[in-house]
Amino acid sequence: MSDVIRLLPDSVANQIAAGEVIQRPASIVKELVENAIDAEASNIYVLVTDAGKTCIQVIDDGKGMSETDARLSFERHATSKIREASDLFALRTMGFRGEALASIAAVAQVELKTRPASEEVGTKIVIAGSKFESQEVVSCPKGSNFSVKNLFFNIPARRKFLKANSTELSNILAEFERIALVNPDVSLSLYSNDAEVFNLPASSLRQRILSVFGKKLNQQLLTVDVDTTMIKVSGFVAKPETSRKKGMHQYFFVNGRYMRHPYFHKAVMDAYEQLIPAGDQITYFLYFEVDPANIDVNIHPTKTEIKFENEQAIWQILAAAVKESLGKFSAVPSIDFDTADMPDIPAFEQAAPVESPKVHYNSDYNPFKSSASYSRPSVNWENLYGGLQKADTHVEPDTTDHFSDSVRTESAETGSVFSSAFNNTDHAVEKANQHLQIKGRYILTSVKSGLMIIDQHRAHVRILFDRYITQITNRQGEGQRVLFPEIIQLPASEVVVLEGIMDDLSAVGFELTNLGGGSFAVNSIPSGVEGLDPVQLVRNMVHTAMEKGNDVKEEIQNVLALTLAKAAAIVYGQVLTPDEITGLVDNLFACETPNYTPDGSVVISTIKDDDINKLFK
Q1: Is the pLDDT of residue 403 over 50?
Q2: Residue 436 main-chain phi, psi, to 5 deg
Q3: Which residues pair with 46 in a beta bridge?
Q4: 138: which strand partners?
Q5: Model pTM greater than 0.90?
Q6: CA atoms within 13 A on the CB side of 446
Q7: 455 and 534: one domain?
Q8: What is the residue-wise DSSP string for 176-234?
Q9: Using alpha carbons only, what angle is made at residue 45 by residues 174 and 121, rounded to the nearest 5 degrees?
Q10: 150 with 262, same domain?
């Protein structure tokens, strides 16, 4: 039997490693910028072309590399940060596994120019698809200059699955923001297709946060600062009144590294319990400093999932720290004693005589005594009924069937929908011409097989979604001008997404003007959404588009239409007039798929006659 197991060539092994480390252009930006920070760079410039698909260039003024180091840096497991296994448990740098440059070189064309401060000339190395092409002496500034071109040029299948430029650029900006937030002492700049996106000078942490997300955030942040033997927690949390359903900026960092941690997120949200509506989120920027020996940062290829040794204890410390900040800055309601309205309580003097209080009353008062003082006015009660005649007819209780015979068919898919007349004196049920609205939530109507129940909010979502999709497709949306334009401020990573969906927003009636610096003026909104917050509406659509990450135009349009429909649909608890109920039902059954909302929620449910009859046996 012949042997079947063999060692993979280095080029293939590097491509496999690249699949774990280099998932998209943003991964390259993250690895190269973190390496520059580890090299103690003071200024870092990132330049991307076509969202990094064509070229990513990272220039820094760090230590640079010697000729030998430059050549070795592209070998797998080559690293300057580990000498023995114990070093893995004392890491305070970003990259350490020695796979990043080898993985990048395996799937792109890489050119490196680098020079340490101690040398007069530098080294230029060119590698493509793990194949070494050239090495030469070159004149260059101190530091390193990486140029990564034609990502996945040798793996067409991987390149084909890259997203649209707007999506990939948004991911690059998100990675850049995370690095910027944890390195305020480093000057960082980013350019996309030669246009400046970020220019962040070295500053304090608070100023760096405001530079990335806007100065409006300054009034919302509360300081968190607690230091224990186990962990130090610092940073900022937002005031409770700033909570929203989605789109909040939520960042955890540990020892200078960004991380995701649902367990610690719950600790933060628990501190806001009963301070914000259920389901709302809050902005926070929280920085942990712990002994590296107590965490494991190598459990995930991207190193964003980190395991802590004492998670439960840290959970309690974190929750207490956030609660302390909320209380310290009066974010938690407290009893306020206004001394101006307090009664004047005299001080007790022991020598002064104490007198019991005296009660004054009229001992002669008798409420039943007929006297001049206490007599009630004389009233001739019979005169009050003058002119009224007693009814000589007796009203029998209504015993008619509450559900009359059917007269009209509406839908073949759900069974025939019939108009019916209802007589109901229950105050909890509102009467309509043909239907009943109950509890401000459901619409009841008789059908051939039993009783049909329609969810009014979901029905309206279904109707509005179809309407907005038609408007987007035909570019026929009507806009309503606002009296005073609303201003929306977005971080750079969200600006890219907004610009990508701008045409579709215009199609449903939005008109936005780019004011620069991440600010947009909302001049017009779709007809029918008056009364809603236009800024929050646009922000929700941007965040939904970011969460979905879709690049197919039709899917993006569906996301926008559904978000807008949910925001504009009638809410639960809203009492409808008979005409409104009838119009809602008629419009629902004019839809192609009235039974379900676009995201799959049930709109219509039918209780069969047999099931109703069983309730009364």
Answers
A1: no
A2: -115, 135
A3: 58, 190
A4: 122
A5: no
A6: 18
A7: yes
A8: HHHHHHH-TTSEEEEEETTEEEEEE-S--HHHHHHHHH-GGGGGGEEEEEEE-SS-EEE
A9: 145
A10: no
